[in-house]
Amino acid sequence: MINDSQVVNAAFRGSFEPALIEEINRIGIYQEVEEGEYLIRPGSYIRSVPIILSGSIKIMRPDAAGNEALLYYLSGLDSCAISMTGTPDNKPSEITAIAEEKTRLIFIPVEKVDEWICRFPTWKQFVFRTYQRRFDDMIATIDSIAFQKLDERLLTYLKKKTQSCQCTVLQITHEEIAREMATSREVISRLLKQLERVGYLRLSRNKIEIL
Amino acid sequence: MINDSQVVNAAFRGSFEPALIEEINRIGIYQEVEEGEYLIRPGSYIRSVPIILSGSIKIMRPDAAGNEALLYYLSGLDSCAISMTGTPDNKPSEITAIAEEKTRLIFIPVEKVDEWICRFPTWKQFVFRTYQRRFDDMIATIDSIAFQKLDERLLTYLKKKTQSCQCTVLQITHEEIAREMATSREVISRLLKQLERVGYLRLSRNKIEIL
DNA sequence: GCGGTTCCGTGATATATGTCACACGGGCGA
DNA sequence: TCGCCCGTGTGACATATATCACGGAACCGC
């Protein structure tokens, strides 16, 4: 049986200095969430920053009309830049975070994020790399929405999805894809069918197998 | 005649502690750019971070096919978060920064950005607020592209534009708007005409007057 | 004033995407 | 086993946006 601190140690060794790992073990709150569980809902206040140990989390942006747009995925050793910055003004969150699969993470209180920056060089590096990655992700998202047609977007969507879950069989409904891409189910069904005809994937109920 | 350090002092007094202002005066490189001038082009390397003293800068994202998408504007006391993070891996920039009008700014070498974070609390605060603002901007951009129809997008575009230049008369061509919104000139012309009929604005050559 | 250039207005048409309506089939609980 | 719900496939149609093809108006240099 693996306990929390072993998991943390294994995940961070090599990235963080020992004193920092110890601090994380002491302060961080370990948590496991199941697939589909919400970590953040719009309107809630973010008081701590999650670091993903294993699994993956998807970050979405809902709009007033009930649509959503996928911003990016978080997986191993990623963290959510929005939650680092989201708090200073004490504004509530404007995003949604949902576990894509069973996910283990550790929460660090925001004050500590700040405090550690000057105490641990590797932490500062981590925080900045996190920002940079999330910026790159957001730019990629904008690229995709602004420049690509739906069929291309669907392809990049499927690619990212398989990357983030590290498998070729997606357990997902057309409806859900449509929601994440802010379009309608029928359109996705048609495009998927098209991709199946071309031999890019195989469809069945609740399942898409990439070839 | 105003000299550089007076400008800098006036801009930063109240936001930064005196020691930091002095440091900025000593290290930062003051520069003025004219309207239309490029600060960053895709492919160039970013070795220093600009802080805008007055004027405004627009940050765009070009794609391979020659289209562009507007990411956000920078104006008084803003800074570009991408340039803070853009350097760690020594990757070239993937964005474009263009002066919207005559703009005064001061460049801080990236190493100093990093160093000052632990030395000056107000600087750390500044850096984090910058990140947060840019994140919010990017999310607003995604909202607009993902959820709004072109006519609404055009409205929000015009609003932001007037905000950033602080005036109601925009010196701009339909072609340029189209490029920034990644669509075509005819479409923008039609939509603008529509807005004129509704009495929202008045059109003339190279000029849009918001009412 | 003249010729060229840039910007703008607008019809006609093409294409992509969104919406509606409905049928089919599989799973699953009563 | 029956009925029902959910996910899917698909035609027909509505709408939004892109593209093409012009013509005309404003401006600029000569």
Describe the structure.
2 copies of one chain form a homodimer. Chain A is α+β, with helices and mostly antiparallel strands and 211 residues long. Chain A folds into 2 domains: 4-146, Jelly Rolls, CATH 2.60.120.10; 150-210, Winged helix-like DNA-binding domain superfamily/Winged helix DNA-binding domain (Arc Repressor Mutant, subunit A, Orthogonal Bundle), CATH 1.10.10.10. Helices cover 46% and strands 23% of the residues of chain A. Chain A has helices at residues 4-12, 18-27, 81-85, 110-119, 121-147, 150-165, 174-180, 185-197; strands spanning 29-33, 38-40, 48-54, 57-62, 68-74, 96-99, 103-109, 169-170, 201-204, 207-210. In chain A, the strands form 3 sheets. In chain A, strands 2-6-4-5 form a 4-stranded antiparallel beta sheet. A 3-stranded antiparallel beta sheet of chain A has the order 1-7-3. Chain A has a 3-stranded antiparallel beta sheet with strand order 8-10-9. In chain A, strand 4 (57-62) and strand 5 form a beta hairpin. In chain A, helix 1 (4-12) packs antiparallel against helix 2 (18-27), helix 4 (110-119) packs across helix 5 (121-147) and helix 7 (174-180) packs across helix 8 (185-197). Chain A is elongated. The mean pLDDT of chain A is 88. The interface between A and B is medium-sized, with 35 and 34 residues.
